[in-house]
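Below is how a single chain appears once it has passed through the pipeline. First comes the sequence as given, then the structure the pipeline wrote out for it. We keep one example in the README because the format questions we get most often are answered faster by looking than by reading.
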Amino acid sequence: MNPAVPEASLTALMHLLTEQAMMALGVPHPMMKETPPANPVVARFYVDLLTVLKEKTEGARTDSESRQLDEIIYELRMRVMDLKPAAGLPAAVKP
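Resulting structure:
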């Protein structure tokens, strides 16, 4: 395997989805020159994907993977909620 490419794993998939969510939240990626504009709808989509991943892998994750996934989802939900007032999203959007 190429040392620049990580091994395919549940953790790698979680990190890939998290990275996409963070960019959708307007957090700059180290490889990008400009900060992307925040897009709460797209960020929410990635949080939802992580939630589906959590549901579909229930019972198949290690304790460490479960803790990490719970922490990622929680942190991203909090960031999405912080964006809602500024983005004009309705308060009824489920966190």
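Residues 10-87 form one domain.

See the next section for the split statistics.
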